Amino acid sequence: MTYGRAVGEGGEELDEVMGVWLPGPGTYTREDMFEIQCHGGGVCARRVLERIVSLGARVAEPGEFTRRAFLNGRIDLSRAEAVMSLIGASSEAAARASLRQLEGGISGFVRKISDSLKDCMALIEASTDFPDEVDEPDAAFRVRAEIQRMREEIARRCDPRGARLVREGASIVLAGKPNVGKSSLMNALLRQERAIVTSVPGTTRDVLTERIQLGGICAEISDTAGQRQTSDPVERIGVERAARAMERADIVLIVLDASEERTEEDEELLRGADERAIICLNKCDLPRKSEYPGSFEISAFTGAGVDALAREMERRLCAAVGAEDKMIQERHLTLARRALDALADAQRCVEEGHPLDLAEIDLRRALNSLSEITGEDATEEVIDQVFRNFCVGK
Ligand SMILES: Nc1nc2c(ncn2[C@@H]2O[C@H](COP(=O)(O)OP(=O)(O)OP(=O)(O)O)[C@@H](O)[C@H]2O)c(=O)[nH]1
Ligand SMILES: [Mg+2]
Prior knowledge:
The protein is α/β, with parallel strands linked by helices. It has 3 domains: 58 residues, 2-Layer Sandwich (Gyrase A, domain 2); 136 residues, tRNA modification GTPase MnmE domain 2 (Four Helix Bundle (Hemerythrin (Met), subunit A)), CATH 1.20.120; 156 residues, P-loop containing nucleotide triphosphate hydrolases (Rossmann fold). Helices cover 50% and strands 14% of the residues. The chain contains 14 helices and 9 strands. Strand 7, helix 10 and strand 8 form a beta-alpha-beta unit. The protein is flat. The two termini are 22 Å apart. The site of magnesium ion has 6 residues, from helix 8.
């Protein structure tokens, strides 16, 4: 590392810098590299960069460094993608999953399954080439068992919902009739006065969204307009938006008012409750007029029970994400599903008693799909597609 000055065309000083010489192959791309470290902020970096470009350098294309690392064999395609998702991670869970992928979690898994597939194919070839030495029914039995095992193992890693939760975060929606305390609960969960709270029913009209982190998972929490029949056109649009937000939610907090008798509007919401719902009996600080078995008894006003509710949401989201190493990238999920389909065809083929070399064709298809995840013989088109989404310079 050398200390020096970056100078302009006329010798004028642009910045005080450090120059670092990094000889390959121990570098990110395995090539020789030279790094100039200038002061932060927009102006210094831009001036130095413009000067270097005027001397003949060019700015890297999006993902070019990682692409070079891939083309020079330092990382496989799934690790290159992990670099990108690590940079873009919006939550602890996303960063953790990306790091595991960068360390080769997916690559190792793909290698293991690919080896099992090759073993199966070798066994099939042996049974067709040397029928006297390898008993075909016995080979068929072993291949079938192995296919079943591989299918289960791949399926465990393929969880589109868990992947979406890690990648994009969860959606939590507050629902309930007007004035039960949805906006108050939103504020209590956020620990800030975000939504307007009044004693006038119909206060919230639009969907109001904020981000929180629950157990390292990013969640968008949305306060909505109270559900009721209304002739006010503005409120009616709000009620429709609330219904749409509920359809897409991962968790629906159905808020009831413990200080009031339940009404038909409450009952209708409760009838629509599915496994995504958590029933919150709010205003428990006031004298009770209604109960609800199995509900979370809370007071958005005093804060009682709100932490327990947050912990329950955290528990549910963490359970949905799962502890095991899963695939998070859409591209990997698509390819793994393709491999699963091919394996299902292979299994059917063996079970229906067709010649084993027919199943081998399906096994090869599965192998090709899996190899595309790590980018062994990936086409130029696939590689372009992966790096197109990178940010500039990495
Ligand atoms: N005592 C008590 N009052 C509460 C509690 N939660 C909310 N309130 C009061 O209930 C009234 C309505 O609260 P909001 O949070 O605006 O209710 P909302 O469900 O968002 O109502 P809309 O936006 O009209 O659908 C306000 O006067 C709050 O102060 C609570 O836990 N205890
Ligand atoms: Mg409100």
